[in-house]
Structures are given as C-alpha cells and as structure tokens.
What we know:
By secondary structure, the protein is mainly α. Helix content is 62%, strand content 6%. It is built from 17 helices and 6 strands. The protein has a two-stranded antiparallel sheet with strand order 1-2. Strands 3-4 form a two-stranded antiparallel sheet. A two-stranded antiparallel sheet has the order 5-6. Residues 439-460 have low confidence and may be disordered.
Amino acid sequence: MSTQRYHPSCTEDALIWYGLVYTYPVYMFGGLYVTGSILGWLLLLVVLLRWYIHGKPQNLFIPALVWLWIVAMSVMLIALWIGHGNWSLGMAKTIKSSIGWAKGWALLAVFPLLGAIVPIRPEVITRGVCIIAVHTLIFSFITFIAYLGRIPGELYISPLQVVGGPGENFFKVSLYGLNPETGGGRWQFFGPWAPAAGFLSCIYLIFCLQEKNPKWRNWGVAGCVAMILLSQSRAGLGIFIMLFPLVLFSDKIKEPWMLITLGIVLPILLLLGEPVYEFVMNSYQEIKEQRPGSTRVRSALANIAMQRWEAEAPIWGHGVVERGPKLVEGMPIGSHHSWYGLLFVKGLVGLFSLAIPLFISAIYLLWQAQFSEIARSGLCMIAVFVCYSFFENLEILSYLYWPALLWLGMAFNPHTAQQKIITFEEVQSQKEKKRPINTKKRTRRKKQTGNGEIFTLIPH
Length: 460
C-alpha cells in the first residue's frame, strides 16, 4: 500500500494533509484538542493573508449555504452573550465562553467556508482519512494484546491541559478504557470517550468508501469496523450499518426502479405501521437495557435540562453549562444530547440556529446527490450528524470530525462538488508534472592567470 511522495499544492493543502496523517502521533502527546481547535482558524488566517498580499481570486464564490451556517453560528454567539447578560455571569465568564464558542460551534461554519473556497482535491482528504483508519487498525491490534496482557490502559494526562478545555478526558492518553458496568475493555481510541469513537467510525467509513484505490479502501473500511466494534457504541453500530445502503442508493432516488420500489414499500410500511413501530421500539428498548446505568443517567439529564429550560430560560437559555446533581453523577446538564444541551444553554434561539441549517443542508444535498459524488457523501455525513445529535453534543467533538465539515463546504459549492474523485496517486502525478524542474546549467568559465588556466563552474 505504498503511496507516492506527497506534494502539497498550497499551504492549506499541506496543513490539512499533515493534520490528518499525524492524528495518532499528535494524540500520543495529548494535543488533538488543541490542534483540532486552532486548525480551522489557522487555515482561515492563511487564506486571508494570501488575499491581502495577492488579492481575492476573481472566481471566488461563497455558496449561500455556507453563509447560512456562518449566520447561524454567529447567532449562537449572540445567544451566548445575551444568556450571560440575563444571568449576570460577568465579563470573565463571557470571555471564557466566547473562546469556547470559537473552539466549538464556530468550527461548524469555519471549516465549510474553507472547504468552499480553498482548492483542495477530495482525494487528499479521503487518503488522509484512510491512513488514520489503517493506523486505527494497527492501534487496535496492539492495544488488544495489551488488554489481554492486563497492561494498564490509562497512560497519562497531557500537560497541554493547562490551555483549558471541556475536561481532562480531552487531554487523556490511553490504550483502552474499561466499561464501568461490565468491567470489560472498551476503546475510545483518540476520542474523549468511547461513543465519540463510534461517531468518528461512521464519518470515516463514508470517507473510506470514497477512496478509489481498492487496497487503501479495504484496509480503511477494516479500520472503521475495528473502531466501531471496540468502541461498543450502541448508536454508532446502528448508524454504521445504515450507512452502507445509504451510500449505495442515495444517488438512485431519481431512477424509475427506485421510485417504483418506494411506491411499493411505503404503502406496505403504512399498512404494517403498528407492528413495525412496535418492533423498532422493542429493539430500541433492548439496546438501552444493555447498559441500564447509562440509559438512566441520559434520561435524567434530559429531564433536568427540559424542566429547567422551560421554567427558567426558554428563549435565550442559561448561557453556560452547569453540572448536574449526584443523581446524574455530576454530568453536565444537557450533555449526551445536542438538542437538550442547546435548549438549556442557548434556548430556542440556539436550537433553531442548528436545526435550520441542518435541515436546509440535508434537502439541498439530497437533490445534489443525484448529480455529484461529493454531495452524495456529504448527504451521508449530514445524516450521521442528525442521528448522532441525539446521543452526543456535536459542537464539543467538532475538533475531531473537522474533515467532514471541510467536505460539506466542498459539497455546498456547485463548482467543487462536480469534481470527479480519482486516486491519490493520480493527483500526486499531476502535481509532480506541474512542479518546476531545476534546469540550472553549470558551465565552465576560463580564467587566465600567470601560472596557467583555471576553470571555475558557475551557474546561470
């Protein structure tokens, strides 16, 4: 599976590539939260600096959907400020929360903007993610042996924690974790907790299925399978299985045979609605009962968030995350769920600031998926976001799934969305041909001296 030497086309291209392929080395230093949080802003700074020096490109185009995400995430910041003002939380907390916004919700607008305006080949991202997946497969094998050998899983907490963050889990370096209910091994890989690894496995699966080199694609998918199985994420496994038919058939909606199939299947589902509904709910209940402790905590967190949101701050929210009581083991109120978290912290304004761009993006990509391979995979990513928003806080993990946000920006731009995905080797061959060749010729110049002739080599 050797790959050609990497030749970046621009600084942004290089930052994205190295940000992907060095995921595990950076994780071993506990630096993923720091690098993932600042990477988007660093890329944006490079773009703005280039525009300042060379001027804006004449063909610059920022799609309306990107503007929608920028406006929506800006409203998130306004809601945060108003929430802080309503509850008199003080300037220090407001500044701290604003920095948290820049490392979380803001990235949901920054990376799509970069994906829409930076000339990045999609093959660079797909190959970079495949490399992460292969590293994950190797990591799984090594750490599973460590688990069987009873080698302690937790290694250390990175000193980078001093820069601040949501908690020590984001700076913890470990080989594997332990399931508190069963005592067995449960892998979080380079995520802050195991369900986050399940989330990433779903996102990475979409990328790996876009890889055109069969060897890299197969090994990448194998790494994603190892990640979802060892993370033991119940929601992740269901979404992971759902992705295969979604990736295969999302571009077939306009086909006559698909319309006929839907015309037959949908009436049958309506006729069998009650037994199908009962089957789905029973299956869901069985899954929840596999970890009753986790299910109880999630349910209690949701109830507390809803009660306090409705009674205390329905429009603008509370402005900050608060720790819950002992009943929920001190977990932050609204955690494990994007919508409850938004209602508690940013109220109805925050909820609609995420729901509206998500819904419109899904509708747009559903249509564009019929014509664009990049839009098709972008639609699958939106589906994962929507599904996982009921189990995770999307903003807190944006420093990890930023390649998906970058890809969405490419899908939103009708010019970049029409790119045909080719192999990474072909991209590098094209870049190699475009590289300037050093054609310096060295000639000899004769010098006449009293002792004879001396020849010196000079370039010209």
